[in-house]
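Task 17 of the worksheet. Students: predict the tertiary structure of the chain below and write it out as structure tokens. Keep your answer in the requested format; marks are given for formatting as well as content.
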Amino acid sequence: MKIEIPAKKKLVHQMTIPIRWGDMDGMNHVNNTIYFRYLEIARIDWTRSIGCQPDPQGEGPVIVNAFCNFYKQLEYPGDVLLKMYVSDPRRSSFESWGTMERTDNPGVICADGGATTVWVNYPAQKSVPLPDWLRAQLE
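Model answer:
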């Protein structure tokens, strides 16, 4: 089953990630845990590109839920085009979505996934409202 990315999604980032030999498992395809790593790499690359540098003494993002759906195997060698979307900004959270396709087979989604991100005050370990500068990126 393919995820339903909300109609009000916003494409915020694209990047290409090389499939490494070490990403493979004993079945000669990319291990399922690596797909989560690809989604993480894209989220971090996006947040850094918008100037979000988490401060352990201040505020920043925390992933509270993550999922991935697998449709076609990714195999070495190759490159993955990851497209990242955001949606549903709320008081202190938003959703992110990612699709993964091989660059040599454009348009064919091999996997997709997402995460719920909550903005928190790290020392207090409590959610706080999304900052205005971040909300502007999400809407």
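Marker's comment: The helical segments are 32-49, 132-138. The mean pLDDT is 93.
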